[in-house]
Amino acid sequence: MAQIESTELTAPTHRSAEDRAAAGKRARAASPRRGHVEFAPTAGRPDPVDVLEGQATTRVSELIPIRYGRMLVSAFTFYRGGAALMAGDLAAVPQTDLQVQLCGDAHLSNFGVFAAPDRRLVFSVNDFDETLPGPFEWDVKRLVASFAVAGRDRGFDAKKRKVINRAVVRAYREAMREFAGMRNLDIWFARLDLDDIARRMRSFADAKQIRRFDRNVAKAHSKDSLRAFGKLTTMVDGEPRIVADHPVLTPVEDLMTPKDRERVHAMAEEIIGAYRDTLPDDRRRLMEEYRYVHAARKVVGVGSVGTRAWIMLLLGRDGDDPLFLQFKEAQPSVLEPALGPSAYENHGRRVVEGQRLMQSASDVMLGWVRTLGLDGETRDFYVRQLWDAKGSALIEFMDPRALEFYGRICAWTLARAHARSGDPIAIASYLGSSDTFDRALAEFAELYADQNESDYAALQGAVASGRVEAQAAI
Fold first, then answer.
1. Between the CA of residue 401 and those of 201, 362, 408, 433, what are the distances in Å?
2. pLDDT tens digit string along 350-388?
3. Residues 80 and 302 sit within 8 Å (Cβ to Cβ)
4. Helices and strands (H and E) in the chain: how many
5. How far apart are CA 353 and CA 252, in angstroms?
6. The whole model's pTM is what?
């Protein structure tokens, strides 16, 4: 399929609501909703292991076996790490011209709760490594396919999965219709608080599910820099130091030569200063109250393993005022080969701007930096707090009804994010009031779950044959 020339979202033309709805109908004629069911691997589809190995060339080689080990836990964890595979597949199927800011990796585990600036827990998309403007349905397909894969992982039969898959797409369609009728500012400030989720969930959950939910919420509330300080550090010569847990957590001095260790503090101060300059003035003033203490490399996620991720410990007024920041490498989005390069020259900024556009409330410490790595290579990073009341759903404990409920809130959240950056009236007009789009994507999800299982088997075979090395999941 021809490459889309620009990834910048088009400037508003202030068309009437009628004109915008008509644009959605024209998009429907050009790319019929039923056509989205189409999926079959193309004749020239790359070998999935080759794609993963291609990603490995820009990553920390010693960490790649950990990535493969985590992907091999199940077909679902493989799916989590296979965003590049699906991006290539989506580029080869029919698509609309209805552009939004894409998450780029909108699977169900990339949604969760975190503390908004007013300290209330909100639910939103929470991973934007692959964010880029593109056709709205790419995110929806990534999301609903993740539920098909998760349903199989949970042992749900085809009938139950069909109900869940359709419910996810229907929730997105109905939410977009809701947003199409809202004022711009109402869309911008719409959000889903954890209290809202709790009220909805208690209408169907049993006592055991409610207790598990409450424990998960309490755990999220407790996750902050003070908790991380107690868990991840120890005192050495009167100063706190991050404790080694190789290879998942490696203090910076363990990765440097004795000569480099002498200048690590100056390097860290320089990096923090460059990051601080990307913050709004009020946040910059806040950051100036903290001093650098220590840093460590941290292995995070599934698909991200091998990209460089660092945590930095800073202290404020005293030893009881810690701040943990995470510096996560931002490489080009896996969507770029199909959708074109980012409008932002710095990929850390690409991630941050995408996150700010899609989330109703973002981390107050969100920023970016470009810096020279330990290997002498210049790299982009985005920066956020390590823990800020972050929490994720426990999919492995969900029954079909709970997974369907979770799918609906993920879909509502994704629709809200798309409505902020795209044209909700045009998209709602395209989707319509019938279940045509729902049924098409529900079928697509099962077809793609088949492909995911085939790709998962290919990685299993590559490990068994010795083609690639995998380390037991840690």
1. 10, 30, 11, 24
2. 999 999 999 988 899 999 999 987 778 899 999 999 987
3. yes
4. 19, 13
5. 29
6. 0.94
